[in-house]
Automatic annotation (TrEMBL):
It comes from the Eukaryota. Residues 1-20 form the signal peptide. InterPro entries: ClpP/crotonase-like_dom_sf (IPR029045), S41A_metabolite_peptidase (IPR052766). Keywords: Signal. This is Peptidase s41 family protein.
Length: 627
């Protein structure tokens, strides 16, 4: 054994970094985090074995005190500020698939549970939030998002002769497998396996068909069947493939763990430093990326657009919005609602004003493609809605659940007017009269609604008032000739993963202007599929909550919760709710809104977006809606 240690030390000293031979052999043997560090330092690796990552994640024992404080914080946050606390207890409307969740009492139940590791506890609590099927309302920890598991194979779903099949979209290890049918996964029927995954492990939509799309999504914004953020149940997975008419055969793959952000590999050398710097970092040590997003597979959408001769590029604005022409129709691809420069609408104008160029190109019909768009700033939604539908008011009616905590926070903010405070209501006006609210009490009003069997106070309904008129003026100034299209000249195309600000734009177009919608993908056996998801009103996170309460001197107020016991933990939640314009008593998040038209992926359009766009464009002006 002694010889072995000397040999290793010698090898490390010769090859690379001095840092590495300070890791004693015993540590390497017993600590997955240390083995990961060692592989990174000695071999420059950025992907690691399932066993090492699993071991690293499971090195932190369950701690009753941490668990209990985590539950305290979450209960405080959701009872004080989560708008759907009561609504989430109601069973789903037909078309949706989720279970009613009594978040507060289910969180309380965790107090009696025991786990062996912090990973197991965190994952279990996270799954409770998954069950809400609301991307806006989540709990998680950066402790367990450093790596994602991947087998280098991705999938898509087609319908052949009425039968839904799963096929290999890409396999970077063996390209011969591409387009083969995946008949079984670990011996079980593939469609069943992926449907179960969509039901339980995908959270960004209340519509199971949309979750099925996300499970197979190749935009890789969220964990999918192919790219997992949680430790898979076992180290490998076996796909049974059927290629052309040949005999089926098995492909067994290991789950490899890829680091999401290489910088994180510099933050630890063993499990202790992993815990101190990633699970519970001091101020400023937190990763900048969202703890929900997946980053390992590059998004090559623009490459595809650039290379395709059938697509005329009018203007490509990276990672925001692009304008194309295909045949005689226009395409506007909205990637998100984050303009490159968020400094007000003036700076966004040069980007979105490109609609003018599309009009100059002479197109009579326009496909608005909002697939894989998970939102951005609300002012973008108002601006787009005003630009395309200038005769509408760009905001839905919105309100806030008024708990004791919320009442106090809004009242204090109304008094102190601190800047960037999430409890600020200054820019809101009454939804009916457009009059300013004259006091916090005037905003809060006296509206008791019963939801999920619970009576609670909600604020008066409001719209965002102050920003709208300046926006109208800017548009009138810079768009001297109005855009030539009427609502019936557009169609909205999505795969259902159009959330938050994206959903606000598409729902606004559909509800205020009767623009047609088409959804792609989902299940063949269900003809209805939502075109948007998790509309919310406003999403805020635990950090913003504490910062805003802090500015108001409410951080130690007995009504308010304490921060999470570990700084790597984070949570976000929907704080406001949006009402339907067409059915004013309905909250859009809980209203099943299937698209007017439906398309399915096939072997061609799944790889060639210009075919898909043509299919959508062909529906513009068509009357044969499915429902
Ligand atoms: C890294 O990934 C490649 C496949 O992409 C695999 O061959 C290799 O074994 C992986 N390394 C580890 C340590 O898992
Ligand atoms: C597997 O996928 C990863 C992540 O996209 C990539 O970096 C790696 O090169 C792939 N491995 C092989 C063998 O193709
Ligand atoms: C996509 O389809 C269109 C229409 O069939 C065709 O003109 C174009 O060449 C195709 N693009 C690619 C990259 O195959
Ligand atoms: C934002 O725009 C305003 C006026 O348009 C300007 O005064 C301000 O400096 C800009 N801020 C940044 C950060 O660019
Ligand atoms: C409403 O308040 C805004 C400032 O937030 C002010 O500019 C506006 O004049 C007020 N409107 C009325 C009708 O008082
Ligand atoms: C609503 O708020 C009022 C205070 O204005 C309070 O007295 C009442 O108990 C609240 N109702 C509910 C159902 O929480
Ligand atoms: C909405 O458009 C459809 C056809 O696209 C039409 O049948 C229907 O009457 C329109 N509804 C309203 C309220 O204009
Ligand atoms: C919370 O939200 C703010 C504002 O969107 C963002 O800058 C910050 O990174 C978020 N923090 C966490 C921990 O998610
Ligand atoms: C809140 O309480 C903590 C601990 O008692 C104290 O250190 C801190 O200064 C207090 N903060 C405020 C704003 O009162």
């Amino acid at each position: 054994m002694n010889f072995c240690v000397i040999f290793f030390a010698y090898l490390f000293a010769l090859t690379v970094n001095v840092q590495s031979y300070i890791i004693p052999r015993e540590v390497l043997d017993s600590d997955g985090c240390a083995r990961i560090h060692n592989e990174f330092i000695t071999k420059k690796k950025t992907n690691f074995s399932y066993a090492d990552v699993k071991d690293c994640y499971q090195r932190f024992p369950f701690d009753k005190d941490i668990a209990s404080k985590t539950i305290d914080t979450l209960i405080g946050l959701v009872s004080g500020f989560y708008v759907f606390l009561d609504k989430a207890k109601e069973p789903p409307k037909p078309g949706f698939d989720f279970r009613p969740v009594d978040l507060k009492s289910e969180l309380e139940n965790f107090r009696d549970k025991s786990y062996s590791t912090l990973y197991d506890f965190t994952t279990d609590v996270k799954h409770l939030f998954y069950d809400l099927k609301d991307q806006h309302t989540m709990f998680g920890s950066y402790c367990f998002t450093t790596f994602v598991f991947y087998t280098n194979m991705t999938f898509y779903s087609v319908i052949n002769n009425g039968e839904q099949k799963i096929k290999v979209f890409d396999d970077t290890i063996d390209q011969c497998n591409i387009d083969c049918e995946v008949t079984h996964i670990d011996g079980q029927q593939t469609l069943k396996v992926i449907t179960e995954f969509a039901r339980n492990s995908v959270y960004a939509s209340r519509d199971l068909g949309v979750r099925f799309n996300i499970a197979l999504d190749r935009a890789y914004k969220f964990p999918s069947f192919a790219v997992r953020s949680e430790i898979p149940e076992k180290p490998d997975i076996t796909y049974t493939l059927k290629c052309d008419n040949k005999n089926p055969f098995d492909v067994k793959r290991n789950w490899n763990a890829f680091v999401q952000n290489v910088k994180d590999l510099n933050k630890f050398k063993d499990s202790k430093s992993y815990f101190d710097n990633i699970c519970n970092p001091s101020e400023g040590g937190r990763p900048v990326s969202s703890f929900l997003e997946i980053t390992i597979i590059p998004d090559n959408l623009n490459e595809i657009f650039e290379q395709d001769q059938s697509i005329t590029k009018i203007k490509i604005i990276n990672n925001f919005i692009s304008f194309f022409k295909v045949q005689d129709f226009g395409i506007v691809k909205f990637y998100n609602e984050y303009p490159a420069d968020r400094n007000g609408t003036m700076n966004m104008l040069p980007d979105v004003i490109q609609f003018k160029e599309l009009a100059n190109a002479g197109v009579k019909k326009v496909v608005l493609d909002f697939s894989d768009n998970i939102g951005g700033y609300i002012f973008t939604t108002y601006f787009i809605s005003l630009l395309l539908f200038p005769n509408t008011f760009p905001s839905f009616d919105i309100d806030i659940r008024i708990s004791k905590q919320m009442r106090l926070a809004i009242t204090e903010q109304y008094k102190f007017l601190t800047s960037n405070n999430i409890y600020d209501i200054q820019s809101y006006v009454d939804a009916k009269t457009y009059a300013n609210f004259t006091s916090a009490e005037d905003f809060i009003g006296n509206n008791v609604y019963e939801r999920g069997g619970i009576k609670d106070n909600y604020s008066n309904k409001y719209v965002d008032g102050t920003n709208i008129n300046p926006m109208r003026k800017i548009i009138q100034t810079y768009l001297t000739t109005p855009l030539p299209w009427k609502p019936e000249d557009f169609i909205i195309l999505t795969n259902g993963l159009c959330g938050s600000s994206c959903a606000l734009i598409t729902e606004h177009a559909a509800e205020f202007s009767n623009v047609s919608t088409v959804a792609i993908g989902g299940f063949a056996c269900n003809k209805l599929l939502s075109y948007s998801s998790f509309i919310g009103g406003t999403v805020v996170n635990a950090t913003q909550t504490f910062n805003s309460l802090g500015e108001l001197g409410l951080i130690n107020n007995t009504l308010m919760h304490k921060p999470f016991p570990l700084t790597g933990m984070t949570s976000n939640y929907a704080m406001k709710e949006v009402y339907s314009k067409i059915n004013p008593d309905e909250i859009l998040d809980f209203t099943f809104k299937p698209a007017d038209f439906r398309l399915f992926y096939d072997e061609k359009n799944v790889r060639n977006v210009s075919i898909l766009w043509s299919q959508a464009a062909a529906l513009i002006g068509s009357k044969s809606k499915i429902n």
